[in-house]
Design brief:
mainly alpha, 271 residues, Helix Hairpins, 0% strand, single chain
Amino acid sequence: MSSAERALTDLLQLMAKLRDPESGCPWDVKQDFASIAPYTIEEAYEVADAIDRGDPVKLRDELGDLLFQVVFHAQMAQERGWFDFAQVARSIHEKLVRRHPHVFAGQSFADEKELSRNWEELKARERAAGEKDGSALADVPRGLPALIRAAKLGKRAGRVGFDWPDARGVREKVLEELREVDEAIGSSGAGNAPAVVEEMGDLLFALANWSRHLHFDAEEALRAANSKFERRFRAMESVVRTRGLSLDGLSAEEWEGLWQEAKKKDPDRSP
């Protein structure tokens, strides 16, 4: 048995022990799929954060946490007689072999675009064979971050012809939705009225799909913007502390001056 197989066996045995109704951990025993799902999502984001930070030690640890989530779900499924970890591993192995005919079946493709098209066609056939729901939008997970799900819904609809012809068309939709947000605010006189919230949602959906047509990930773009904002705000806080000032005592003009100063000093400077 290899070291990897031994380590995985040990982890599976540990999980079974934690879930033992008599001698296991009370917290682990009382969990179910719904209660564990938020932790699974959180661990996936922590893996992404470790990658973003370029921290290999943290990445190793976070991958371990994410693997534990898979083992946890597999153990609960095994207890219900649904499937076990081995079946999970075999299932993904078979799927990857099936989706890589150019590697395992001698099939060839002219270029990466044709390869990608074949991948999507294989996925579509698998969905059609396994889904009772015949919608083109079937199996787009509801638990995805909203921006990612918006882009996936738009992409799925586009496969059957319901899409903007190009990025310019989506841009016009973005401007239309922005006008409708302004109109809703003007009509309600409040920023939290149901009509304003609805129109803002439509605007965000359009923005996510504009990003899709421009061939970048809206979620990644927003994550980068968040990081930039955090980096610059922390820089402003540092300057305020150095100057002996109080954050809550600054005027709008002082905040703007600090922001412009932080932008100039930002190593990844952009507007």
